[in-house]
Backbone:
């Protein structure tokens, strides 16, 4: 397996979707190629960072203007 | 009267039953309980507070119209979340779009023999250590904003809003396979954008 092929299979590998006949060469490549090992680690860290990016205090919802609440309520069917 | 407290004591089925009966208080509880959370969802997609508020107004109109279709198979909060995501996507599509930048410059490059052109330098702190810092989150959000829009959207729907591939595909009107490909490229591109920050040069 080349580094290019390895990169293509990362998402399926992380989701546990790789068939055995691909997972074995994937894992063999991973154990032998330090550059792809690093790339996979960074890919995982990127996914974690993305998932975390909006999870914190700074993304707390703002106060909703009363005007908007009333506008929404007035659009309800009667 | 604190509607949030009331809402937590009202289960979904009761609230929906009261909404269907046209109960004023129930409408008030629904809107006051969920609007700020739904605005946050729409703001992530639209990156504009004003657009987000408009989208949430659209979302509630659609909620009011489809109350009869809420089956109670998912939680009310999940159902509302999906409707808000959809409303934000509709507004995103209607917004005047700049031509999208190509993603290829942000993807890894390979030699003709299939090796990476780049020698990756390790990120000098563990991801966990980086994540606890608020400024790192802000950097990551800015990098997500720099992704070409069709890739940014898929990354948001899958990794942040946590929709399944199938749900994201249905909302975007593309195939499940297209969602998977775009998600993979979006993550690869985000890695490229994060690289200088996580190497510690700008952190």
Residues:
């Amino acid at each position: 397996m080349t580094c290019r092929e390895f990169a293509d299979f990362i998402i399926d590998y992380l989701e546990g979707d790789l068939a055995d006949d691909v997972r074995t060469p994937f894992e063999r490549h991973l154990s032998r190629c330090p550059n792809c090992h690093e790339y996979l680690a960074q890919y995982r860290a990127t996914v974690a960072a993305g998932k975390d990016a909006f999870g914190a205090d700074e993304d707390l919802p703002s106060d909703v203007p009363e005007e908007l609440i009333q506008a929404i309520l007035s659009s309800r069917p009667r | 009267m604190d509607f949030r407290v009331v809402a937590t004591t009202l289960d979904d089925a009761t609230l929906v039953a009261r909404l269907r009966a046209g109960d004023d208080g129930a409408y008030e509880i629904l809107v006051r309980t969920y609007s700020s959370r739904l605005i946050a969802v729409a703001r992530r997609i639209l990156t504009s507070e004003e657009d987000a508020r408009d989208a949430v107004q659209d979302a509630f109109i659609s909620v009011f119209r489809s109350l009869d279709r809420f089956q109670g198979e998912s939680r009310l909060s999940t159902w509302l979340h999906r409707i808000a995501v959809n409303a934000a996507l509709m507004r995103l599509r209607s917004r005047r779009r700049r031509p999208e930048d190509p993603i290829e410059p942000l993807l890894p490059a390979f030699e003709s023999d299939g090796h990476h052109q780049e020698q990756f330098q390790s990120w000098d702190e563990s991801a966990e250590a980086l994540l606890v810092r608020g400024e790192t989150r802000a950097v990551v959000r800015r990098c997500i904003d720099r992704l070409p829009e069709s890739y940014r959207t898929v990354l948001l729907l899958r990794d942040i809003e946590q929709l399944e591939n199938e749900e994201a595909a249905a909302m975007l009107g593309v195939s499940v396979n297209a969602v998977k490909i775009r998600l993979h490229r979006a993550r690869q591109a985000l890695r490229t954008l994060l690289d200088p920050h996580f190497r510690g040069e700008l952190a």
Observations:
- Residues 3-74 of chain A form one domain.
- Chain A has four helices and no strands.
- Chain A has a mean pLDDT of 90.
- Chain A touches chain B through 46 residues (CB under 8 Å).
